[in-house]
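Appendix B. Raw example, untouched.
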Amino acid sequence: MSTLSLLDVPKLKELVRPYGYNIHMHDACGGQSFTLERTGEKASADVYGAIETFFAARHMTVRFYDDAKLNFVVQ
């Protein structure tokens, strides 16, 4: 699994905010995982493309692992 720099976490949080989401990073020995939390009534599905673009710029691929697409890891 790939690892996002802790310096990039605030950038990711700022990226998802306008789409009506907050993001939480879970960092453990086995790697990192991320959880999206809806913060507004107008949550936009466009957030998924923005997240994928953000990680692609860092040579990583996003893999959502639940049907609601609120939890993911990067590779």
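End of appendix B.
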